[in-house]
Amino acid sequence: MVAPLSAWSWENFGVFKYLLYGPLAAKVLYSWIYEDSIKDLWCLHILVICALRGLIHQLWNSYSTTLFLTRNRRIKQEGVDFKQIDREWDWDNFLILHALLAYMACLIFPSLDDLPLWNPKGFITLLFLHVTVSEPLYYWAHRYFHEGYLFTHYHSLHHSSSVTHPYTAGHATFLEHLILCVVIGIPMAGSIMMGYGSTSMVYGYVSAFDFLRCLGHSNVEVVPHEVFNKLPFLKYFLYTPTYHSLHHTEMGTNFCLFMPLFDAMGNTLNRNSWHLHKKISSDSAKNGRVPDFVFLAHGVDLTSSMHAPFVFRSFASVPFSTRIFLLPLLPVAFLVMLIMWAWSKTFLISFYNLRGHLHQTWVVPRFGFQYFLPFAMEGINKRIEEAILRADRIGVKVISLAALNKNEALNGGGTLFVEKHPDLKVRVVHGNTLTAAVILNEIPKDVEEVFLTGATSKLGRAIALYLCQRRVRVLMLTLSTERFQKIQREAPADCQNYLVQVTKYQAAQNCKTWIVGKWITPRQQSWAPSGTHFHQFVVPPILAFRRDCTYGDLAAMRLPDDVEGLGSCEYTMERGVVHACHAGGVVHQLEGWTHHEVGAIDVDRIDIVWKAALKHGLRPVSSM
């Protein structure tokens, strides 16, 4: 049975919960449109304050997940996984509750409309009431919530988040946020009742309150230890992220709201607080743990740039799709793209742990269209080369190149860097061997004929050579007889007849297995017979135009079940699924292979890589 006041009345409303702001918004709009002025001004203030509080949490989320800035200041090194993100999905429920309670207060006390904009006495009274009432009230309430029934049925929800995050600050039960509303409200109500209240006091106090709550849950140490060295007394009047993090790991200590003074008075101050804070703050100037594997990705387009974890965590935790309400942010994304083009270097965007190995994703600050600008290619190669050399310098074992970062025309599938730097210790991997393996293992064993576009590309060549050795007839679409014959000569003599050059899509009008390595239009798709399945390794994927046909996804694999700290989706991939070239690098690292995987695909290694992937628990998505 659910404990009283532990659940939220609107927890099943989804996005429709925001309609609860409707009466406030309607009242403001009605006054604005049909009356000379907004009479119920506090309705507007409440909406603005809620938006401001949401923005504070969003900005703290962006900062704490901007790993290239914060990775060496992180307190707990684990990542926030999908389970925690889902639990904290409705972290903003408390904003609705506080808005409704604030509106009730405005109805009960209409004199609030007469508050002045500024009154310095109010800030002094507010601070006094906060220290003498709110801090001890919160401290003792918090201690009681760590006992027996209250913890089991209420506060354990907040502590279910193993890695604190700014959104964790809002992740609690209805009862806890009712009490928190009292804690926030007492200093403001007291100042107003004494005649010292002001609008700026309400805005300032609520904003500062949320700012400090987010700071404590950010998992990033931002308070320099030198401050406490110069002003030792200050450590009793301001907590730090490290201080509150200890409360989440050792729950019998550090109960205070913002002031450790009350923990000291209550004998619940963790004696390791200052030492750990100094250690983390001092170590922030040092390099952190070296990843074992790096996946070197790149931007796709401006819209997908808002899929980054440090932009919107919730969106990044689900497969990418275009959201109409984000389109107004495109000008901002365009400006950021220009800034990155001019100044940015490769940066860390996400990480996870797999069997004790740290795997990171770095991003080359370039978008898909830039890879096809002739004047930009040199700069892109320079960024990729810098990333490889940096990985080599710090001791990364394997670096895998994503999609366009290994473009044949750009750098020969990574060959350029390996030849230029023959003494590289880091293994450079394009991952295309596993990509080919995934595509080939999707093809039914009884298929006798396939139609292949992009047939003379790196992947097309490997797929054609592999299939012809399985005695599958491959219709290779290419206008270049020279390139076709070069590939044909690579096949065993008794298999060469299975490779057939075709120059038109009409040649495949009776073939129901199409492998698409070059983008095809709906008109070109129309030549496929009904019931055709389109396998593909083309970026972006082709349009699913034919309703009488089926379309495969890009080659991908699901990471093993024991992956830890994974909380973002890789572009359009499902949760826990990565592109095959990413998975190929993972296998290379787990196997401890010491060769580079660049240039042409070694057809003889396709089965070897596939079996290694399965051995380590990676699974094809199609088998799920």
From TrEMBL:
InterPro entries: CER1-like_C, Fatty_acid_hydroxylase, NAD(P)-bd_dom_sf, Sterol_Desaturase_Related
Example GO BP: lipid biosynthetic process
Organism: Gossypium tomentosum
UniProt xrefs under Pfam families: CER1-like_C, FA_hydroxylase
Record localization: Membrane
Transmembrane residue ranges: 15-34, 41-60, 94-112, 124-141, 177-196, 324-343
Record-stated family: Belongs to the sterol desaturase family.
Protein name in the entry: Fatty acid hydroxylase domain-containing protein
Calcium recorded as keyword: no
Topological relation to the membrane, as annotated: Multi-pass membrane protein
